[in-house]
Amino acid sequence: MPEPILLSWSGGKDSAFALHTLRSSPDFEPAGLLTTITEDYDRISVHGVRRELLERQAESIGLPLHEVLIPKDCPNEIYEERLAAALGAIKDQGIHHVAFGDLYLEDIRAYREKQMAALGLEPVFPVWGRDTTELAHELIHLGFQAVLVCVDTDILDPVFAGRAFDEDLLRDLPPDVDLCGENGEFHTFVHAGPIFRKPVAIKLGRVEGRGRFWFRDVEADWAAKDEGDARAPLGSRLAARFAGLGLTEDVPELRGEQAQRSKRDASG
User: The dihedral of CA 72, 100, 56, 145: what is its sign?
Assistant: First the structure.
């Protein structure tokens, strides 16, 4: 019988591919997503994506979302304390495995293994060791759609912020840049692909530089969502309307801190 597993979720492509992989595994059954939120900004830590878009991802994926709230410029001690509290509650629910979308950085993996061992949890790395060039092309081939929401301008030109993660991007990236951005060259937000019931409708907002890191804001495209709802079957539209009124049970801004690829950021 597959073991329930929690996935460390950044909203980016690597964690999305990790989820896709887990759903094909006979050993594990994804049971939830875990994301760190910078509470001062109400955004995903490091990536700088709006919380509402994270919530729309989780809704479309169909998994419960568990959030770890941290302050801006958070000391690692506070981060680890709040993460431990969140994971302790999840462990009490009978979940003893946590998956991460790391690809090849040994120090990051060692940190996670030590952290999970201290909490009595088993880390799992479903995409570990994958060739990142092959993986980048496979993500696109599978139909995943993502946008670069953060770039390290010590490595990449700021014009890359907001680019779609597609074959054109892969051709345009400098030869010394990992095609999956595993070294922190860029971070992404995934808004469509095989793990979603329906795409997360988005529109690009302003670009803002925060030191060496430049961010492209992403907003919910409510007009696109409403148009999609209007094309839905009448039964689905009524169900969505009743859910919004609380009549059903089963329904399931850009000021990001200067992001650095740290031991605590989820992949992607």
Answer: positive
